[in-house]
Amino acid sequence: MKILETEIALKLNTLFTVLERNEHFFNSPLHVHPEFELVYVRESFGKRIIGNGIEPFEPGDMVLIGPQLPHVWINDEMFMEGRADKRARSLILYFHPSILESGIFNLQEATAIRELLTKSGSGLSIHGVTREKVVTLMERILVAKGFEKILCLLQLLHELSGSADLIPLNAEELINHERGKEKDRLCEVYRFVNENFRTDIQLKDVSRLTNLTPQSFCRLFKKRNKIHFVEYLNQVRISNACRLLLDSDWTISEIAYNCGYKTISNFNKLFKETTGYAPKHYREVAKTGVVMDNKV
């Protein structure tokens, strides 16, 4: 099962819209599309994969996803098995990049919005008061008609572009010109990891790319990304393993070794800790939508 490439604008015959979803569980596969997507989870919980980032989600979770960034929401087993007393409910805004071709977005006053949408290429988690304001605007778009919908979208983008409540979800896409030297150092690390995660990556080799000692490198990486380097490396490996489970017929062993794991037992353990599923179970659920016994 390949990563699904779709186009929301064609499917819905509109360049932007807000949809409400109310399902037993979120059943979209890992997919990409050319639209920007803003997702607010009203009910349910589980794990979400956005780019190389794998994190838990719960009610209130909100993220902005840029075009062609792979993503999927995987509910906890209790939803997929029908044991949950609640449903999977979300509010989703889609808008196509062609909207930005309007001359208004080329004005100097729209600089902050253009920068926001560039940063969304890494995925952005939205928190605090900003999230509350954005939910209100999404709900207004849901019922608005005519040009009022456009005004609400512009206001929503304005709120996001001026907010400090945004957190990048994928470190390799971070853009921060004010931290140029430190960012440039880590860019080499992100590139190295993405090109070599299949091999045995040693901390001393990675820290050498930044001209720092291993201890100083670890402090810098944790400061910038809020996670340890080893956690980031595992996220990249598991994210690629998820794609191979969906996009290939390789065995679990072949996928484990291809993603840099030396033993199957370690791969199975880390995969389940990260996604909540054993690799075989993850593949079966993603391909068929039928929940199997969660065994390796």
TrEMBL record:
Question: Which residues belong to any copy of the HTH araC/xylS-type domain?
Answer: 187-285
Keyword DNA-binding appears in the UniProt entry: yes
UniProt xrefs under InterPro entries = Homeodomain-like_sf, HTH_AraC, HTH_AraC-typ_CS, RmlC-like_jellyroll, RmlC_Cupin_sf, Tscrpt_reg_AraC-type_HTH
- One Pfam family hit: HTH_18
Q: Which keywords has UniProt assigned to this entry?
A: DNA-binding, Transcription, Transcription regulation
| Coiled-coil ranges from the UniProt annotation | none
> Does the UniProt entry include the keyword DNA-binding?
yes
Record-level Gene Ontology MF annotations: DNA-binding transcription factor activity; sequence-specific DNA binding
Name listed for the protein in its UniProt record: Putative AraC family transcriptional regulator
